[in-house]
Write a structure and sequence with these properties.
The complex is a heterotrimer of chains A (360), B (180) and C (715).
Chain A lengths: L1 H10 L3 H10 L5 H9 L7 H14 L5 H14 L6 E7 L10 H15 L5 E7 L2 E8 L11 E7 L5 E5 L3 H15 L3 E9 L2 H14 L24 H7 L5 E3 L2 H15 L9 E8 L16 E8 L3 H11 L8 H4 L1 H4 L3 E5 L1 H10 L1
Parallel strand pairs in A: 8-10
Antiparallel strand pairs in A: 1-5, 1-6, 2-3, 3-4, 4-5, 8-9
Helix pairs in contact in A: 1-4, 1-5, 2-5, 6-7, 10-11
Chain B lengths: L12 E6 L6 H10 L6 E6 L17 E7 L3 H11 L11 E6 L10 H10 L3 E4 L5 H18 L8 H9 L12
Parallel strand pairs in B: 1-2, 1-3, 3-4, 4-5
Chain C lengths: L1 H4 L2 H11 L10 H16 L4 H12 L5 H9 L9 H13 L4 H14 L7 H5 L1 H6 L7 H11 L7 H14 L3 H13 L21 H14 L1 H14 L5 H13 L11 H11 L7 E2 L6 H6 L4 E2 L11 H9 L3 H21 L6 H18 L4 H12 L7 H9 L6 H17 L3 H38 L22 H22 L4 H21 L9 H8 L4 H26 L13 H15 L13 H4 L28 H10 L14 H10 L3 H11 L9
Parallel strand pairs in C: 1-2
Helix pairs in contact in C: 2-3, 2-4, 4-5, 4-6, 5-7, 6-7, 7-10, 10-12, 11-12, 13-14, 19-21, 20-22, 21-23, 22-24, 23-25, 24-25, 24-26, 25-26, 25-27, 26-28, 27-29, 28-29, 28-33, 32-33
Classes of the chains: A alpha+beta (360), B alpha/beta (180), C mainly alpha (715).
Subcellular location (chain C): Chromosome, Centromere; Nucleus
Keywords (chain C): Centromere, Chromosome, Nucleus
GO cellular component, one term (chain C): nucleus
Chain lengths: 360, 180, 715
């Protein structure tokens, strides 16, 4: 069983990554790894290699599902964009300065998990770049129909209220939240409406909001080194390629381009923007154009949804402005995405929204 | 309004490439400079016509205008169509052409017929070639340079009107060399 | 033999068959024992047809307990063949609705598993309509779809069935098995299904019973290895795919290849069993799929039925033979329809969807088909004419030119509008190599049209004129693609004349725009040579003389071979005119004298060339030879410092092209000459000298013109 899971997880890695993952994994001893390196299978097809590794591991006594889970986490760390992550905020936390220990957290999680789910469920934790990566391997409670255990991955930065979680089934949502609340000792877990695949960007956006306050502007250009990720802010590549100009080529719209760039730099800064794959706006506003009033009833709000999707939406919006395809200056709901650290918005008239909030 | 003859001729031959952002004007310009050309070449690029007034003073006489249309972008054709209104009609005598990019793409937003129609009405030469593909771009650049060579009057055997005659309506061309 | 021995297997079967009522399972030793025996035999060597027949009844009747029936069905592994009756029995049991739904599904699955080993399928196919009704049972739907997919023949595809399937698809959403069945319907009757079938599925029918099928195959191989392997080779050779697993492979191939493979429902097992004679079905036709060799083709040459995939013509040489002799108009039309749709898709609509190799492969096979057929295809011309308008002049250049050369004869004004003008637009702004290729292609086109298409056209013409008089007319045998009354009415001579004029003008512009490029001159001369030999090599009863300006322009070339070949071309024209004159006088031309309008021009050109090259009178102002003047070369323009009489400047020994030979000639100094001008006295020797250096043209030309003392011979 464990071996099967191990095969599945390693099978998803690239062959070139397997060895480095195994080295990071504390389970195999260095002699095992050198044995593996010297063997012939390392050059053969991945299938054989994976089988070989599974054989080595199966021989060990303490080979259990938690160790395999750790390996899975290590594989995930190579490419965290495999999952869609959602950000959640832990609110009203009670423990202020408790020392943080992943092992303790694991035990705590396991304990709480056992209360709500099948005791076969397991937990693995790993510390990576200052964050705890957790894998909850959840089996359904016994009385329900049998379903294959599902994995839920979590990333938590200690001493911050931030938790990143991958998608999970709605049926286990309530229990899962309860487990987390108990475990992190807080009262409420609220969704931040910030989802995406790029973990670093999500973390940057979420943390920035708390450390700078709701109304501060997100300014990458001021932050030379980010506290939590190893990646330094990157300069845009586009600028460099445009500088490679032949003296015989002159751009007639240079002045305009320069002006546009200045305006955009003022808003977004000169560095690459954090990566969000999707930004959507639910619009519920009244029709305000007085000229074409005939086409819509001014009292009824128009409901529609606007989605921006792409490999990096904010950068894309930036580029639209740079190409002159979007009118500058850009409206605040587009420029403030980074500062608000959200990618699902509801745009509504002011009174409308207030009354809604009251109702809630 | 730009005019082919409202400025003094210069030693350098100037070509203007007009096309919306991101169609590959710059790459095309670089490729044109890369190809062998027996004359000095000065390339200007612009997003659309009319050209901004700020640079009017140091702008040379433009010998040739090349409009780039990305067939997958509806805007691209619209911009070119609007820009054509700001060009003197004498450019249509063999001093302008259309470059149509990305024809080999299933997501065409502009029908080819309307491009052909536009070209026929204005007697413009049409060059097809994907500017994102390196070999095709180089091919287009070569063809543009050789066209420019003729149309700028740098070849003793022909001039811009020859080009119109040959390219646009060879059918009507009377055989100027044969007797009768 | 097994019956005599009374072996335990027979006992077991008998026990099960004879049981009237439901047998007890718990504690029934006999039942367990007999099942065990059957299992052992079935999994080791398979069951005989009779046993299968008996056990199907037991298993499908629903008499026994569910578990027993299930087990039995799973054990119906044939040792050799499955009798068709057994399958029919299973279906009839399904119809009674006595067995439970699970058993019914299992039976259908069993039929799918053993489908390849059923000894006959015609009676099974007879139940097609019945089986189709079962599609309403959702639990059976995937399996039934697969079974129908196997069974479907062309005549089964009916509009009401298509409607039902579409209705099902509407209710259930897009399901792979439904898509699969619809796809085969679309294969057979594209006209009935206008819906776009998306091809996102990897395979339509996942092998539900992989282990079971593997077991059946294993037993089959064990029991008759020889026959099996033979079957395999025959199957492979004739039809690379029958089952669904190869369907996926075919789809993969489709991505690379637009030409369809031949698929047919006529089962290969029938073929293997009964041979060719049995297959002459009701109407006595032989499906093409059974034709594997040229010999077989000859055997049943008059009865071959075209496959459903006409596009396969491009792939199969045999089918090309068939279509080339067949007079089946429907087949031609179907092929043209397919070709038009495919080319449209590949070249015009979504060219990049499939990658460039895809297009290249299609064009290449089309080219080889055209080479085989020796005839142009009208729809190809049409598609090419639209393609040229958006061609970048780079993609598949050679193939496009090769296909263009195979164009049919059209009215010239149409032809110029659709092919030549767009080609010309590309021509003028392209590099000299493109120009050379174009001229070469046009030369080949001229040859093809005079040598091949002209004959087709004449045949069609005579057919149409004769067709008005008699009702029973002999069909144009050499032409495959033609339409009743569809051919345009025009004369070949007009076409050729205008074509030659057009290409000459192209050549002139090319010479004018580029500096004199040896390759370009070579190609132009190739064209002129082709124009000059039309009469001699292809028995064309007329000759077309290109504009004289082209000759004069080439005269100024700096390449000695150009000038030499030019001379031989012009002397060849002279001979053609002479021989035509002779034919006319003997009445062979049938009163046709339209070629002789250009005689004056020929004479003028000859005179002009001989004056320039031989007589040192290049700028002679006499009435007949004003050629040079028209080119605005006036002697005043020549720099007087050169010290050579300007009239003599183009003479053979002063000519820029021959200057190196002149120099060497003087160096060798056989005649004690110090200056080129002195060669005048030994002009003939100089010509001989040139001839020794492979420049024969000049000598040939001078000999043909001068010896007779009168320059103008044809007048």
């Amino acid at each position: 069983m464990e071996a099967d899971f191990l095969k599945r997880y390693i099978g998803k890695c690239k062959t070139s990554d397997i060895l480095s993952v195994l080295k990071k994994w504390s389970f195999l001893s260095s002699s095992d790894i050198s044995h593996l390196e010297s063997s012939e299978t390392i050059k053969g097809p991945k299938r054989n290699l994976v089988g070989f590794i599974a054989d080595i591991c199966s021989k060990r006594d303490n080979f259990n599902i938690e160790a395999v889970g750790e390996l899975d986490l290590l594989c995930l760390q190579i490419k965290p964009s495999k999952c869609i992550w959602s950000c959640y905020q832990l609110e009203e936390s009670n423990d202020e300065d408790e020392a943080f220990d992943p092992i303790q957290l694991k035990q705590k999680l396991r304990k709480h998990l056992g209360l709500y789910f099948d005791p076969r469920s397991s937990v693995s934790t790993i510390l990576h770049n200052g964050a705890v990566w957790m894998k909850l391997f959840i089996s359904q409670p016994r009385n329900q129909k049998y379903q294959a255990p599902r994995s839920v991955y979590l990333i938590h930065y200690p001493h911050t209220p931030l938790i990143l979680m991958t998608g999970h089934r709605a049926s286990i949502r309530e229990f899962l939240f309860q487990v987390l609340l108990n475990c992190f000792n807080c009262k409420k877990l609220s969704e931040m409406k910030l989802t995406g695949r790029h973990v670093d960007s999500l973390v940057e956006l979420a943390l920035n909001r708390w450390c700078q306050g709701d109304f501060s502007k997100f300014r990458y250009e001021q932050v030379q080194r980010r506290p939590l990720s190893e990646i330094l802010p990157r300069k845009r590549k586009v600028d460099e390629s445009e500088e490679e100009l032949d003296p015989n080529i002159t751009c007639e719209n240079e002045g305009m381009k320069k002006r546009r760039k200045e305006m955009l730099d003022k808003v977004f800064g000169t560095n690459t923007q954090p990566v969000l794959e999707k930004v959507d706006f639910k619009v519920q506003v009244r029709f305000k154009d007085t000229k074409n009033l005939g086409i819509a009833d001014p009292d009824v709000p128009i409901t529609c949804q606007v989605k921006f999707e792409g490999p990096s939406v904010i950068e894309g919006i930036c580029n639209l402005g740079r190409c002159g395809m979007a009118k500058l200056p850009l409206p605040p709901h587009l420029t403030r995405i980074t500062s608000l650290a959200k990618n699902h918005f509801v745009l509504a008239d002011k009174g409308e929204l207030d009354s809604k909030r009251k109702n809630n | 309004m730009i005019h082919p003859f409202n400025k003094k001729p210069e030693k350098k031959t100037a070509i203007l490439i007009v096309g919306s952002e991101g169609v590959g004007k710059h790459a095309l310009a670089l490729d044109m400079l890369k190809t062998e050309h027996p004359f000095e070449l000065n390339i200007r690029t612009a997003g659309c016509l009319p050209l901004p007034a700020e640079k009017a003073a140091d702008r040379p006489r433009l010998d040739f205008i090349c409009f780039v249309i990305d067939i997958t972008k509806p805007d691209s054709f619209k911009i070119v169509k609007e820009s054509l209104q700001h060009m003197d009609i004498s450019y249509c005598l063999g001093k302008a052409c259309l470059v149509v990019s990305k024809v080999k793409n299933s997501h065409r937003s502009t029908p080819l017929e309307s491009i052909h129609d536009l070209a026929n009405r204005l007697s413009l030469q049409v060059v097809f070639g994907d500017l994102e593909d390196e070999t095709e771009r180089l091919h287009v650049a070569r063809r543009l340079v050789s066209t420019l060579h003729l149309s700028a009057g740098l070849q003793c055997s022909g001039s811009a009107p020859t080009l119109v005659n040959c390219v646009i309506d060879f059918a009507v061309q009377t055989d100027i060399h044969t007797a009768e | 033999m097994s019956l005599k021995k009374k072996n335990p297997l027979n006992d077991a079967v008998c026990y099960l068959v004879s049981a009237d009522s439901k047998l007890k399972i718990k504690g029934n030793e006999a039942l367990h024992k007999s099942l065990e025996v059957i299992e052992r035999t079935a999994t080791s060597s398979g069951l005989s047809p009779e046993q299968i027949l008996q056990l199907v009844d037991v298993a499908a009747s629903g008499k026994q307990a569910e578990t027993v029936s299930k087990k039995l069905i799973k054990l119906l592994i044939p040792a050799t063949k499955v009798p068709e009756v057994a399958v029919l029995k299973a279906i009839s049991w399904i119809c009674t609705n006595r067995p439970s739904m699970t058993i019914q599904c299992l039976l259908v699955r069993w039929i799918i598993v053993v489908y390849d080993y059923i000894d006959g399928r015609d009676r099974l196919h007879g139940l097609y309509g019945l089986l189709f009704r079962f599609l309403h049972f959702h639990s059976m739907l995937p399996y039934m779809c697969q079974l129908l997919y196997f069974l479907t023949r062309r005549e089964d595809v009916k509009l009401y069935r298509v409607r039902q399937l579409l209705e099902l698809q509407k209710n259930l959403g897009s399901q792979p098995y439904l898509t699969g069945l619809l796809l085969i319907y679309k294969h057979y009757q594209p006209g009935l299904l206008s819906v776009v079938i998306n091809r996102k599925y990897k395979s339509f029918f996942p092998t539900y019973d992989r282990k079971w099928s593997a077991m059946v195959r294993l037993i089959q191989e064990k029991s008759n290895p020889l026959e099996r392997s033979q079957n395999d080779t025959v199957l492979e050779r004739l039809q690379p795919k029958l089952d669904t697993s190869s369907m996926a492979a075919a789809r993969k191939r489709r991505k690379l290849d637009s030409i369809p493979d031949i698929q047919s429902s006529a089962s290969m097992a029938d073929f293997v069993k009964g041979g060719l004679s049995k297959l002459n079905l009701l109407d006595g036709t032989v499906p093409f799929i059974h034709i594997s060799t040229f010999g077989k083709l000859l055997e049943s040459i008059d009865k071959i039925e075209f496959p459903n995939q006409m596009g396969a013509v491009l792939k199969s040489r045999l089918l090309q033979h068939v279509i080339s002799y067949s007079s089946d108009k429907v087949a031609d039309t179907r092929f043209q329809f397919w070709l038009q749709a495919t080319l449209h898709e590949v070249l015009l609509d979504y060219p990049l969807e499939n990658g460039p190799e895809y297009t290249t492969r299609l064009l290449r096979s089309l080219k080889s088909f055209l080479d085989f057929l020796q005839e142009g295809i009208p729809v190809l011309d049409a598609v090419l004419s639209s393609y040229i308008c958006q061609w970048n002049g780079l993609d598949n250049r050679c193939l496009i030119f090769k296909l263009l050369t195979r164009c049919r004869l059209h009215q010239f004004s149409d032809f110029r509008e659709s092919i030549l003008n767009p080609l010309g637009k590309l021509f003028f702004t392209s590099s000299v190599y493109f120009k050379c290729q174009t001229i070469q292609a046009l030369t080949d086109m001229l040859q093809n049209q005079v040598a091949v298409e002209r004959l087709h056209h004449e045949e069609l013409e005579s057919y149409q004129t004769s067709g008005q008089s008699e009702s029973n007319k002999n069909k144009p045998m050499s032409v495959l693609f033609w339409e009743e009354d569809g051919e345009e009415d025009f004369k070949t001579v007009d076409f050729v004349r205008e074509f030659v004029q057009f290409v000459s003008q192209l050549c002139l512009v090319a010479l004018q725009c580029g500096k004199s490029h040896p390759l370009l001159e070579h190609c132009i001369l190739n064209f002129l040579e082709m124009a000059s030999v039309l009469h001699k090599c292809y028995q064309v009863p007329f000759v077309v003389f290109p504009p004289a300006s082209l000759f004069v322009w080439l005269l100024f070339s700096s390449n000695p071979y150009t000038v030499s070949r030019l001379c031989s071309v012009i002397s060849r024209f002279k001979f053609v005119f002479q021989s035509l004159k002779i034919q006319q006088s003997t009445g062979q031309l049938g009163g046709r004298n339209d070629s002789f309008e250009s005689v004056t021009e020929v004479n003028k050109t000859i005179l002009c060339l001989i004056n320039a090259l031989w007589r040192c009178k290049a700028f002679d102002h006499s009435e007949e030879t004003r050629q040079m003047e028209e080119l605005s070369f006036s002697p005043e323009l020549v720099d007087p410092r050169i010290g050579v009489d300007c009239d003599a400047m183009l003479s053979a020994y002063h000519h820029q092209a021959f200057s190196c030979f002149t120099y060497k000639f003087i160096k060798e100094n056989t005649f004690g000459i110090k200056h080129p001008t002195e060669i005048k006295v030994c002009k003939r020797e100089f010509l001989g000298y040139l001839e020794r250096h492979s420049l024969k043209g000049l000598n040939e030309f001078v000999n043909s013109v001068i010896i007779r003392t009168k320059p103008s011979t044809t007048k």
